[in-house]
Amino acid sequence: MKRLFILAFGMLIICSFASRAFTSTELFDDFSGTSINGHKWYEREFVREVVDAGLVSKLGNNSGSGVYRNTTAFQNPNSINVIECTVKVIDTVLDTGTMSKSFARIAGWVYNRYESGGARGDIFAQVIIGNRGNGLEAWWEVVEALDDNVTSWQDIGVGTLVGPGNLNFNTAYPVRLAYDQDTNEFTFDVDGASNVFTGPDWERPPVGLFKGLGTVVRSNDGSGTGYCYAKFDDVLINDEIEFYDTFDSTLLDPAKWKSLEVAREISDGKLRLDVQTEDSMRSSFASLKNYSNYLEATVTVKSDSWVSSGARGEARIAGYFYNENRGPGSGQDYNRYQGNVRAQIRIWLRDDSSLEAVAQVNNLIGPDESNLDHWGFLFRYPFTTPISFDTPYTLSIEFTEDSMFWFECNGETTSYTIDTPTYPPYNENRFLQSRIQADPSESGYMKAEFDDVYVEEASSANVLKFCDASVSDGTLVGDGRGQSADHRLDAVMQMIETADALVEEGDIDGACDQLMAAYTKTDGDPIPPDFVTGSAASDLAFMIDELRQSLGCE
Question: Residue 152: is it exposed, middle or buried by C-beta count within 10 angstroms (0-12/13-18/19+)?
Answer without folding.
Answer: exposed
